[in-house]
Amino acid sequence: MFSLLQQTAADAAHEAEAAVSAAAEAANAPGMPQLNTDYFGNLIFWLLVVLAVIYWVLSRIALPRIGGVLSDRQGAITGDLVAAEEFKHKAKEAEAAYDKALADARAEAQKIVAANKAEIQKDLDAAIAKADAEIAARAAESEKRISEIRASAAEDARSVAREVTAALVENFGGAADPGQVNDAVDQRLKGALQ
Amino acid sequence: MATEEAGGLAFHPMEQFEVAPLFGDGPVSWYTPTNATLWMALSALAIVGLLVVGTRGRAIVPNRVQSIAELLYGMVRKMVEDVTGKDGLKYFPYVMTLFCFILFANFLGLLPKSFSPTSQIAITGVLAALVFVGVTVLGFVKNGAHFLGLFWVSSAPLALRPVLAVIELISYFVRPVSHSIRLAGNIMAGHAVIKVFAAFAAVAALAPISILAIVAVYGLEVLVCLIQAYVFTILTCVYLKDALHPAH
């Protein structure tokens, strides 16, 4: 029964092939080797062996390994992202701390500058006051000396004038009365020295 | 063998799909290592190289090979999750096995002189049948008789439902056929077309056109290899979703 079917199948194949090979060159129609059932057992046996080997290798070794690598990578990427987020947060905190420190330092510096300025101002005021006092004292002294000099200059001028006048009177042949000369000189000088 | 027949063109586009024993010339029994065995084993080795050796560093910052492995993992996992939902992730290793096997078998089949296991209807048929049987059993185990609700379109008018049920039932049983023939047919057609163009290269006048055509078809095939692997996988996910959530 089976061989009969096989026979008819082979016949059909030969007929189909005959058309093909006639178009090409038909001396001995080769037929489709794929339909030769003699080799089916062999092909199927080796196919099942190879499939079993591939399935075993893939399911036991290759696929778990590749799956593991992929999930490891996913884990590593997720971990790295989390770490990066953390670092970013830390960086932000550090920046805020730095800004705060900078502001504090600036305020401190300003305070110190203000304090120094006040101190310097105080010293300066004291120094100015002292200098003013000294200048006033010096000015007073100078005033006194100028008035002394002026007084002495007036006295010198008076005595020189008296001597010159007495000498002039004597040279003009008059007798110089010291009392009269003194009075006259004083009289004239009073207006000039005032 | 492709022999020149008195200056004529020799077309043997189907020869590349023949199964031959790897050692010697004896008969092929079910356990004989054949060229199909070799190229399926190479696919398995390539998958191990990419997904196991390539990821041995388990680096947080992946190198190139590990990036490709992760890309593949992420793509298939996302596909399973998007189509079937969270509860479909339990079957992700099997879907990944299917996708990797088909992808690597397709791409390795593009190497000159290689053998494409995915061009064999026996192989794609078994792949599709495994999905079909697995999904059907899973549907009944998970949902019991509710799984039959898949065929009873409750949103349609009552009178139409029996008709639709018949159509749904037929389409359900056609699934593994289309599922398997789509993949084998695509791969076979591309490879056969390349071989036909290659035969034309024997004629000097046609050789440049032939080579250009081979390059173009080869480029298309690279695309087809990826797309067919993707299509097979996403259909598997869709069928799985029907099994897990049969309600329309």
From TrEMBL, chain A:
TM ranges: 39-58
The reply to whether Cytoplasm figures as a keyword in the UniProt entry is: no
Q: Which GO terms describe its molecular function?
A: proton-transporting ATP synthase activity, rotational mechanism; proton-transporting ATPase activity, rotational mechanism
- Which UniProt keyword terms apply here? ATP synthesis, Cell membrane, CF(0), Coiled coil, Hydrogen ion transport, Ion transport, Membrane, Transmembrane, Transmembrane helix, Transport
Where, subcellularly, is it found?
Answer: Cell membrane; Endomembrane system
Coiled coil stretches, renumbered: 84-111
What is the first-listed, main subcellular location in coarse terms? membrane
How does it associate, per the subunit comment?
Answer: F-type ATPases have 2 components, F(1) - the catalytic core - and F(0) - the membrane proton channel. F(1) has five subunits: alpha(3), beta(3), gamma(1), delta(1), epsilon(1). F(0) has three main subunits: a(1), b(2) and c(10-14). The alpha and beta chains form an alternating ring which encloses part of the gamma chain. F(1) is attached to F(0) by a central stalk formed by the gamma and epsilon chains, while a peripheral stalk is formed by the delta and b chains.
Name the protein family. Answer: Belongs to the ATPase B chain family.
Kindly provide the name given to this protein in its UniProt entry: ATP synthase subunit b
* Organism field: Paracoccus halophilus
What is this protein's gene name? atpF
From TrEMBL, chain B:
Membrane-spanning residues where?
36-54, 91-109, 121-141, 148-174, 194-215, 222-241
Q: Which UniProt keywords apply?
A: ATP synthesis, Cell membrane, CF(0), Hydrogen ion transport, Ion transport, Membrane, Transmembrane, Transmembrane helix, Transport
Subcellular location per UniProt equals:
Cell membrane; Membrane
Gene3D superfamilies attached to this UniProt entry: ATP synthase, F0 complex, subunit A
Tree of life domain: Bacteria
Task: State whether keyword Metal-binding applies.
Answer: no
Please indicate if the UniProt record lists Membrane as a keyword. Answer: yes
Entry coiled-coil feature ranges = none
InterPro entries hit by this protein: ATP_synth_F0_asu (IPR000568), ATP_synth_F0_asu_AS (IPR023011), ATP_synth_F0_asu_bact/mt (IPR045083), F0_ATP_A_sf (IPR035908)
Give the Gene Ontology MF terms in alphabetical order. Answer: proton-transporting ATP synthase activity, rotational mechanism
Task: Show the GO cellular component annotation of the record.
Answer: plasma membrane; proton-transporting ATP synthase complex
Q: How does it sit in the membrane?
A: Multi-pass membrane protein
Q: Which CDD domains match?
A: ATP-synt_Fo_a_6
The family database entries (NCBIfam families) matched by this protein are listed as: ATP_synt_6_or_A, PRK05815.2-4
What does the function comment of this entry state? Answer: Key component of the proton channel; it plays a direct role in the translocation of protons across the membrane.
Q: Which PANTHER family match?
A: ATP SYNTHASE SUBUNIT A (PTHR11410:SF0)
HAMAP family per UniProt? ATP_synth_a_bact (MF_01393)
> Family per UniProt?
Belongs to the ATPase A chain family.
Protein name, per record: ATP synthase subunit a
Organism, as annotated: Paracoccus halophilus
Q: What is the lineage of its organism?
A: Bacteria, Pseudomonadati, Pseudomonadota, Alphaproteobacteria, Rhodobacterales
